[in-house]
Design goal:
Helix content is about 70%, strand content about 0%. By secondary structure, it is mostly helical. It is elongated and about 60 Å long.
Length: about 230
């Protein structure tokens, strides 16, 4: 998504070789900003418990039928990514078009928007939350803010003090919220429609697990003592 946002920037700047995003932020995007959440979720998250899969082995057929990932889903992801890049680039660009804000300040806003969108997008698809997952996803967003502030506080780097010029205004926070809301509309709508009106076998089994876990929590089994009083 960050690359697509930069593509829009190149188109609107006459194919300039300059970039609005600091070189350090470009490097840290894949190394720090978004790597940990993806790895942690890939390791810890799972669709269903072992108990459910052993009880209903036919659920493994979803992978053979390509229900979880197929060409239609791939096309939707590509279209969704383009939509998010449009929201990330054009909403701040149009808002600051006639202002004195420089490209470095816009680049910082674009970086923050992309990282927040990517992590919220990932969070919406997490099935089983743990404290490690929370720390990875939300910690990645916090780490991005810290890195952007540190980078813009170094006088020798391009974009010095850029984040401070925009972060102190209400428009900055309004644009940040607007980009997140607009960018998540397709994914949120598709997820709601798919899970509520067209659920697959795995989603149905997942709801069964939630009902079972809730029932077990409300009505725990009591271990009866087999000993008798003397």
């Amino acid at each position: 998504m960050l690359l697509l946002s930069l593509c829009w920037y190149v188109l609107y700047t006459g194919y300039t070789l300059s970039t609005a995003i600091n070189e350090w932020s470009s490097v840290l995007y894949s190394v720090v900003y978004t790597s940990a959440p993806t790895v942690i979720v890939a390791i810890l998250d799972k669709d269903l418990s072992r108990r459910t899969l052993l009880k209903y082995p036919q659920l493994y057929g979803a992978g053979q039928r390509e229900e979880s990932y197929n060409l239609r889903l791939f096309i939707f992801i590509m279209v969704d990514s383009v939509w998010q890049s449009v929201a990330v680039f054009f909403i701040p660009y149009l808002a600051y078009k006639n202002s004195a804000i420089d490209s470095a300040s816009l680049g910082d806003l674009w970086t923050l928007c992309v990282v927040i969108l990517v992590n919220i997008h990932l969070a919406m698809d997490v099935i089983r939350w743990t404290w490690i997952t929370h720390a990875a996803i939300w910690g990645s967003i916090v780490a991005t803010w810290i890195c952007v502030i540190i980078i813009d506080s170094i006088p020798t780097l391009p974009g010095f003090w850029a984040i401070y010029e925009v972060m102190g205004t209400a428009l900055f926070w309004a644009l940040l919220l607007a980009v997140i809301v607009v960018g998540m509309i397709p994914h949120f709508a598709a997820k709601a429609i798919r899970e509520h009106f067209m659920p697959n076998d795995i989603q149905i089994a997942r709801e069964m697990e939630k009902s079972r876990d809730s029932r077990d929590a409300n009505h725990p089994e009591v271990q009866m003592s087999t000993s008798t009083r003397a």
